[in-house]
TrEMBL record:
This is Cyanate permease. It comes from Auraticoccus monumenti. Gene3D superfamilies: MFS general substrate transporter like domains. GO terms for molecular function: transmembrane transporter activity. PROSITE patterns: MFS. It is a multi-pass membrane protein. Residues 17-401 form the Major facilitator superfamily (MFS) profile domain. One of its GO terms (cellular component) is plasma membrane. It is found in: Cell membrane.
Amino acid sequence: MSESILNASRVELDRAAVVRWRNGVFLVFLATGLTFSSWAARLPRVRDELGATTGQMGLVVLAMAIGSIVGLVASSHVLARFGSQRTMAFFFALLGAGMVAAGMGVELVSYPLLAAGMVLAGLGMGTTDVAMNLNGAVAERALGRTVMPLFHAFFSFGTMGGAGIGALAELLGVGVGPQMAVLAVVLVAAVLVGVRWTQHENSLDTRAEADEPASTARDRLAVWRQPATILIGLIVLGMALAEGSANDWVALAMVDGHQTSNAVGGAGLVVFVTAMTVGRVAGVWVLDRFGRVPVLRATALVASVGLATTIFSPWTSLAFVGIALWGLGSSLGFPVGMSAAADDPRQAAARVSAVATIGYVAFLVGPPVIGFLGEQVGILHALLVVLVLVALVAFVAPAAREQSLER
């Protein structure tokens, strides 16, 4: 594709329309993070209302994970049939409905209703995640500059806001059911508005691309065998595991590994999340200035140094420096992987779906594996597995190189 043809394909989208598109995607990312986090913040209340054991709460989390994996795996076929706009609108509404059902399950002490709500919420979230990443990647192309890390920063802002809403609801004694019902109504309405601001992912297609036959289910499954998909998936796998293991284990690693108090351990997670959010905001400029491959290699090095420092530091203060480097270095792998997966418009939906599935499997399966290893060798030494996979990102980073405009 020549640059002149690519530019011609953007003529119909003026600057205001593209900025509005970007803002619509911002809103979807923000609302998705807020919805999930506002529920997660109430899990202690959910446990108390149900009188559930830790094992039973694990099954609640598993129900959402099952729905998410189904949504991720099926998303390429859904996107091929309905497009990213309708997929975002419908499946975010499904996420909201699932959260309402789960909240009512808590209020009625109904495990079947809670489980059904969690599966629906997971299905909605997994599918919405792929759709918003695909639509965001195309919006990034329309803007002509890096913006995907900022989309993911808005997800982080949403998780912070959702945690705050959950904490406030707990303080005020608001039930889980009423909280989720009100949030669902507000956020679904906001997302429907945001989706109206976006454009279809084929908005930038040239005439030649538009005339190509639609992909078949076999074509969409074939991307799993492509070296580019596998290598980009390894990038996302390593960085998603770095993020997921920190979210689940960094506080405990500080308490058990460095003998800190629970409060100090919790502060470690705050440092990690803050550093990751800063990295995503700053990453927009850094990626435009230096390009994907050098930045991925540098961030993999930073994350590796951070993990090694956290694991081996004899001092708590130095371990906190390590956590900050860990968060900063882990911040860009997932969003850059999404952008790279969407570089080829003809295979964007299938590749984004495949890469997102790999990433979320790392999020969901990786931390329990780290926990199992931690039982055997200690949580700090178990994190060496994460260190190895993060270091691997530096070697496979060329797979994310920006595609040439000449095709």
